């Protein structure tokens, strides 16, 4: 299975150690989403824009660990999206983003510019 990650799970980011057993497939930009900074990590929500990230091949054990990390408390919901590498899971933020910092480039690496 595959997963699209766009924030702290990306290479050289704070939670990238969760991806140790994953196989990087390539970069991808998901359309019709907007990216917001939630502090130390981002949240992507449906909207007019795009979100840049990375696609990985992962096993069921890794997906289970990521689900425990991301979906606890209902903060994110996992959704299936299409990528050039095949369908992939993406964690979509489920809470209101009013008052959160919008990242217009859709790239978490640009967060300090806004």
UniProtKB/TrEMBL annotation:
<dbReference type="Pfam" id="PF06094">
    <property type="entry name" value="GGACT"/>
</dbReference>
<feature type="domain" description="Gamma-glutamylcyclotransferase AIG2-like">
    <location>
        <begin position="3"/>
        <end position="109"/>
    </location>
</feature>
<protein>
    <recommendedName>
        <fullName>Gamma-glutamylcyclotransferase family protein</fullName>
    </recommendedName>
</protein>
<dbReference type="InterPro" id="IPR013024">
    <property type="entry name" value="GGCT-like"/>
</dbReference>
<dbReference type="InterPro" id="IPR036568">
    <property type="entry name" value="GGCT-like_sf"/>
</dbReference>
<dbReference type="InterPro" id="IPR009288">
    <property type="entry name" value="AIG2-like_dom"/>
</dbReference>
<comment type="similarity">
    <text>Belongs to the gamma-glutamylcyclotransferase family.</text>
</comment>
<dbReference type="InterPro" id="IPR039126">
    <property type="entry name" value="GGACT"/>
</dbReference>
């Amino acid at each position: 299975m595959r997963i699209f990650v766009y924030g702290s799970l990306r290479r050289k980011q704070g939670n990238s150690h969760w991806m140790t057993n994953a196989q990087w497939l390539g970069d991808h930009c998901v359309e019709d989403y907007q990216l917001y900074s939630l502090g130390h990590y981002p949240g992507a929500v449906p909207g007019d824009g795009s979100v840049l990230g990375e696609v990985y091949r992962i096993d069921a054990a890794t997906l289970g660990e990521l689900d425990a990390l991301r979906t606890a408390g209902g903060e994110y919901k996992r959704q299936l999206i299409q990528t050039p590498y095949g369908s992939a899971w993406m964690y979509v933020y489920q809470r209101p983003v009013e008052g959160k910092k919008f990242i217009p480039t859709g790239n978490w690496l640009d967060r300090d510019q806004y």
